[in-house]
Amino acid sequence: MDSKDRQIIRVLQANGRMTNQDLAEAVSLSPSPCLRRVRNLEAAGVIRGYSADVDARAYGLPITVFVRVKLERHNEEDVKNFERRVHMIDEVLECHILTGATDYQLRVVVADLDAYEDFIRNRIHPIGGIASIDTSFVYSTVKNTSVFPRLG
User: Fold this and answer.
1) pTM of the model
2) How crowded is residue 106: how many other Cβ atoms within 10 Å of its Cβ?
3) Do 133 and 67 form a contact (C-beta atoms < 8 A)?
4) Residue 65 sits in a domain of what CATH number?
5) Which of 120-123's residues contact partners 24+ apart within 8 Å by CB, and which partners?
6) In 3D, which of 19, 33, 127 has the Cα closest to residue 81?
7) What total of structural domains would you count in the chain?
């Protein structure tokens, strides 16, 4: 991947619906080579897909929660079970494995506090093998972007 491919990616991250003509103009290429590069990035799995950036509040999910989970045991069975179960929970938008005192951090969206309580009681607790759950509610977002920084 070269700097032109990275430039294409950054422009598409900012606006994935732009036409190839507009993309080519934005990255100073003619349309045919630009489209060829995009297709190559897609075929290589660098561009995994396209999606809409939706306002969660407008959708009806105004509460974002960061949930840190520590497992009781770190054996293969418990880790696989936790990760498999988290994949099946729609409220969990992201799940990251962490270094340090916490094993996982989840980014969760819910409609209200009752929905969060239901999420914990009926989706997280039944997983089992959890030593602790620490929750932080987001009350404001300063920056939220999916556009990667420039390299070099």
Assistant:
1) 0.88
2) 21
3) yes
4) 3.30.70.920
5) 123/89, 123/91
6) 127
7) 2
